[in-house]
Amino acid sequence: MASIFVLSNTSKLREGLIIADATLAELAVGQKITNPHFSGVTKSGDAFSISAEWALPDGVKPQHVELNKPRATISFQNGNTMRTNAGAGALDLVSSTAALTENVDLHTTNGYTATSSNLEVNFETGNITSNGPVHAEGPIGSIDSGAMELRQDLDVNPAGRAVLMFNNGVKLIYKPKKK
What we know:
1 helix
């Protein structure tokens, strides 16, 4: 069974879930969907997509979708891309959030990597949080912390600037460039 989930740039995740046939919708309740794909555009114009090995919606008009081995990609307008992988996850279609758990790995095209036990992405605000330990590395060094938050608040200011904060026991190792 294949399924495509389509999102517009003004709709919440839930409004993008389409199951066309009523009989098919009844069959989908409690059934895993193999290789699902969710995609859309943030309020700031960045394209995102989420796919998984399988998804398990909680009903015909789902509010919650369990994901196995989710993969997420965000393609930013500046040309950079961020990719994440996790062992498990879930979409909350009411609040437009995705929760990634179990060994979350994050990689960017500009040379940064991070690992965490969990990551929550809010598609309305563009905010990303991890309330567990985070280890990040990049061209200028590494950072370890007990938590991390990326705030964009796109729901208030779609052109807002992102602020990345690390807290709860931060250890920073800076590697200056050689001259």
